[in-house]
Structure formats: structure tokens, C-alpha cells
Amino acid sequence: MREKNTFTIFGGTGDLTFRKLLPALYNMEMTGSNPFDTQIVIIGRRDYTSTAYRELARDWVEKFARLHFREDVYQRMADRIVYYRMDFTKEEAYGELNDFYHEINAGNHIFYFAVAPRFFPVIVQGLKKVEGAQGGKVVLEKPFGESLEAAAALNEKMEAFFSPDHIYRIDHYLGKEMVRNIQTIRFANPIFSNVWDAEHIECIQISALEEVGVETRGGYYDHSGALKDMMQNHLFQILSIVAMEQPRSPAVEDMHREQMKVLAALVMPEDISGSMVLGQYEGYRGEPSVAADSHTETYAAVRLLLDNERWKGMPFYIRTGKKLGKREMQVAIVFKSPSPEAESNILNIRIQPTEGVYLQFNIKRPGETEEIIQAKMDFCQSCSVEHHLNTPEAYERLIGACFKGERSWFSQWDQVGLSWKYVDALKDAYRRNGRPVFSYEQGCSGPKEAEQLLAGYGHSWFDK
Ligand code: BG6
Fold it and tell me: What GO biological process terms does the UniProt entry carry, in alphabetical order (predicted)?
């Protein structure tokens, strides 16, 4: 018989639950990859019966699950969903929650906080009334805090209740197939690993372009902005994986130690105007729940340097933004060109929507000529049907890892703390220098100032 666990989602009627968590649980049901017999407790303030909630959830699962929809599989999962209505911001409501857990014979708790971080403390306080909660695990959705100070205070509260190794800070980019592949592409291939340094590489570009705007999340986003929403977490995680030294072993501690060293080596730019551009798409201020005079950035591009032997002097360019006309996430390694006639070799790790690797190198034009042209090899991993069936989505993979107690692909507090410190300092420097948030048209590739930023160093954004 499978061991039981109880997976409780706070924020069970929110976007994240419908779009990501329930579809992930459905995929796990379909693939049989969950070793536990899991009870799913959905907590929300709205008035649903379990039956009504299951009906509602069906449409979302059907629309967003990676695997095709099968009514019998959904029913199997739905039978294990119970909806529990409560105001989770009221500490006194948790005594009844405890009674409810008794009624349904809950145990082996895993709590998912799919709510804004300001609610974390009250939930933790309330869970003190729930038997067995303290020995359980907790999954925290980003953003973890709103600044270094807030994040540190929050962390202290979380660690005072849950054991630190039972806290899973989710960064769903760490569950993406091609993010997991970066280490293999680099370390398993001497053609790359031997030239992975500032001596051979001209620059490294990490881009996360989004087609969507803020949609229904204006209230949250307007207090966050692109730097805190994407860069502090997802993109700094990728940066630390791309730039780290090879971990001594696959053990989680070894990888985290190397990632930490990268974050600790980040240099604060001396000239912020030559290092950072913030932008806002036209029409953003008219989005629901966004302030009419908002200066929040929906686009950010930064030039970063690392103070260590491997990367000294070589720029990392990182950019992200909304309403950029396409969805594209990639890491481009632009090698130094060997001669004025030859172009740079480019290794482009394509994270999404296409997953694969693009490699550009120099060859001779066919015929009686010595002219150099570029060969462009494009390997699309996600184009195969097999890939689609075998590759779990980020949330599916990370929820599964948490159930099984595998911690490697979650953010650690020290990493989160360091990246907050750096992002806070960047934001502050930008403001103190009186730099504007540049406006850009929806559907373009970002403010022209971000193009000029790279042009100032003789570079340009690689667009594949
Ligand atoms: C989330 C951000 O963490 O990541 C969103 O809060 C963003 O603003 C999203 O849209 C992007 O995720 P993905 O997986 O679609 O690239």
C-alpha cells in the first residue's frame, strides 16, 4: 500500500493553483509518478462545495495540463480533492482546520503557500494549532519577501516553525528541462567546457522575453516590477548555474556552494547609466489595479560583471520584459571572434518555448572562394512527440521532488538573501541617479535604450 500524505494548498482559488498546480497534479496522476496516496486539501475564502470546486477545476486541468485529458484519470484525482472554506488570515480559524484534518484523517503534511508573502506569517502562526503541522513540509511560492529586509524577517519566522530542510522555496525555472540541461551541455562536452571563460567568451546573454502583459496580476506586479519578479529569482538562478565552477559531486550542498560563490562575486556597477535600463510598456498604467502614475518597470536589462578569476571583465547581459511581441527564453554564449573576417561562434541554449540548442560557427562558402560564412545548426529537442510525453513540466517535477524530499532544485535561503541584496542595491542606485523608466511600444523588443546599452560596448542582443 502506498504511504499517505496530505497536500494542502493555501490560495486554492488563485491563478497559480488553476493554471499550474492542479494541472501538475493531474499529469502526475496520469504518469503514476507520485509515489504517495495524496489527499488534496484546497483552502480558499470563496464559498464552494468540494463537488463544485472539482467541476470548476476540470476546465482548467483540461486546458492547461501537458498531457491529454482523460475523464477517468481526472475523476481519480478529483475524488481526492476536498475544498475547505476558511479565511486563512484569521488565526482563530485554524482550530477548526485542525478538527477538519482529524475528520479526514490527514497526516504527513505538505503545505503549499500559493499566496502573497505578507500572508505567510499569519498562516504559520495559525498552523501552530494544527497537530503534526510542525513536522511537515512547506512549499513557498515566490516572491519570497519584497526586499532583503522583509525576506530575512520572513525567513526567520519560517525557520522558527518549520525545520529548515523542510522548507522548499520554489523557483519554477529550476524545474525547466533546458535549465536542468545547462550543466550537462557545458560539463559533458569538452568543446564547450574548455573554453567556458572570459578568455574565450565575449559575452553571455540571458533573455526572458514575454508576450503577455500583467493580465490579472496588476495589483501584485505594480509593487514588484521586472527586477523583483523575474531577475532576482529566475534569472539569477540561471546566471549562477551558467557561471559556476563544476560542483565536486552531484550532492545538493556542492551545487549550492558553487552557485553561492557566483552570487557573492557580483560586482556593483560603478556607472549605473551604462549598466542598466528599465522600461515600461505603453498602456501599462491603464491595466487593472495598476497605479495611474506608476513608475514600475515591466522591462529590465542589466550588464553585470563577476569578480572572479574565470569571468573577470566579461559582461553578462540579462534582460526580461513583458509585451515584447514574443515569448522566448534563452542563454546565448557569444564566443570571441578569432579574426575580423570571422563572426563569433554562438552557442544558444533555448529554454522555451522551443527547447533545444542552436550552434553557429564559421565555414568556407562552397566554390572557388575563401569567403567565410556561418553554418547554423539548430537542434530542436521539443519537436519530438517522445519529448512531449516524457518531459514533466516544471511544477510537476518540483512538486514530485518535494514529495520525495529531493532538495537540489529549490532555492536556498542564502542564495535568495544574496540576490535580494544585489537587486535592492541596483534599484536603489538607478533611482538615486535619477534614471528614467523608458517607455516602449507593445510588441517591440523593448526600449531602444537597451539596444544602445549593448552598442556602447560593441555588442548587440542575440535574437534567434
Ligand atoms: C513568474 C512571474 O514567476 O514567471 C511572471 O511572476 C512570469 O510574471 C512567469 O510571467 C513566467 O514564467 P514562464 O514559465 O511562463 O516563463
Answer: glucose metabolic process; pentose-phosphate shunt, oxidative branch
122: Cα separation from own chain's centroid: 25
Q: What CA–CA distance (Å, rounded) separates 392 from 309?
A: 37
For 428, other C-beta atoms within 10 Å of its C-beta total 11
Rounded to 5°, the CA angle 398-257-414 comes to 70
Q: How many CA atoms lie within 13 A of 232 on its CB side?
A: 28
Q: Which atom of ligand 1 is nearest to the CA of 208?
A: 16
- Please identify, by atom number, the ligand 1 atom nearest to the C-alpha of residue 210: 10
Residue 109 annotated among the catalytic residues of the structure: no
Ligand 1 lined by 393 (C-beta under 6 Å): no
Helices (H), 222-300: 226, 236-243, 252-264
Q: 210 CB less than 6 Å from ligand 1?
A: yes
Distance (Å, whole) CA 233 – CA 412 = 11
- Nearest alpha carbon, ligand 1 atom 8: 229
Range(s) within the chain of domains with CATH label 3.30.360.10: 173-392+412-455
Q: Is 229 in the pocket of ligand 1 (CB under 6 A)?
A: yes
The CATH homologous superfamily of the domain defined by 4-141:
NAD(P)-binding Rossmann-like Domain (3.40.50.720)
Q: What is the pLDDT of residues 410-433, one digit of tens each?
A: 998 999 999 999 999 999 999 999
Residue 230 CA, ligand 1 centroid: distance in Å = 7
Instruction: Enter the C-alpha cell of residue 194.
Output: 574548455
Read out DSSP for 318-338?
EEEESS-SS-EEEEEEEEPPS
Half-sphere exposure of 147 toward its Cβ, with a 13 Å CA cutoff? Answer: 8
Residue of 172, 215, 329, 411 to test ligand 1 pocket, by largest number of atoms within 8 Å of CB: 172
Question: Which atom of ligand 1 is nearest the CA belonging to 214?
Answer: 8
Q: Which of 68, 234, 387, 388 is an active site residue? A: 234
Q: What is the pLDDT of residues 44-96, one digit of tens each?
A: 999 999 999 999 999 999 999 999 999 999 999 999 999 999 999 999 999 99
ipTM of the complex: 0.99
DSSP state of 296: -
pTM for the model: 0.93
Strands (E), 45-136: 81-85, 109-113
Binding site, annotated residues: 45, 87-88, 142, 172, 176, 210, 229, 322
Name the helix (H) or strand (E) containing 279: strand 276-281
| Domain boundaries 173-392+412-455, corresponding CATH code | 3.30.360.10
Q: How far is the CA of 234 from the centre of ligand 1 (A)?
A: 9
Q: How far apart are CA 43 and CA 27, in angstroms?
A: 21
